[in-house]
Amino acid sequence: MLRKAKFHRSMALEGDARHLIAGVWTSMGVVVGLLAAQATGWWWLDPVLAIAVALNVAREGFSLVRRSSDGLMDFALEPDVTQKIQAVLDDFAHPTTIRFDHVSTRRAGQRRFVDLHMHMPPSWTLQRAAAVRTSVEQALMSAVPG
Predict the structure, then answer these.
(1) What pTM does this model have?
(2) Can you tell me the distance from the alpha carbon of 16 to that of 106, in angstroms, rounded to the nearest whole number?
(3) What pLDDT score was predicted for residue 71?
C-alpha cells in the first residue's frame, strides 16, 4: 500500500497504510508487553512498552498531518524530475531554431506543472510552431507522469 501511495503520490493511500502499520505495532506492543511482563515478573515493562507504542503512534500522526498540509502547498519539483524535464527540452532545443528559458516547475498535491518560454523562428507558421509545442508537451507528459 505504501509503494502504491508513493507511485500515485496519494496522501489518502499513504494515510491508510500508515494507519494499518500503526495498528500492527500497537497490537504487537500490547502482546509483547504483556508476555514480557508475565515472563519476567517486571510489571513495569508493560506500561513502558505501552508508552513507546503511544509515542510511535503520535509520531506517525504528526508526520501524516505535516505531509498532508504540505500537499496543500506548492513546491518545486524534485531534482530528478527536473532533470528529466531538462533532458526532454534539450532533445528539442536547437541553437538556431528552438530554445527554452524561464523554466519553472511546481507541484500541488498530485499534479505537476511546468511553465516555460519556448522561442522559435519568426519565419515559422503558427501551425508549425503549434505542432512543435504539442510534441514538446507530449514528450514532457510521457517523461514525467502527472
Answers:
(1) 0.56
(2) 26
(3) 65
pLDDT (tens digit, 9 = 90+) per residue, 92-143? 999 889 999 999 998 876 788 999 999 999 999 999 999 999 999 999 999 9
pLDDT score at 20: 85
> What is the Cα–Cα distance from 90 to 66, expressed in whole angstroms?
36
Buried residues in 32-63 as b, exposed as e (16+ CB within 10 A)? ebeeebeeeeeeebbeebeeebeeebeebeee
Calculate the average pLDDT of the chain: 87
Question: Cα separation of 23 and 47, whole Å?
Answer: 17
For residue 95, the one-letter residue type is: P
State how far the Cα of 111 lies from the Cα of 53, in Å rounded to an integer.
Answer: 35
Residues whose CB falls within 8 Å of the CB of residue 89, separated by 6 or more in sequence, listed in order: 100, 103, 116, 136
Residue 132 CA to chain centroid, in angstroms?
A: 30
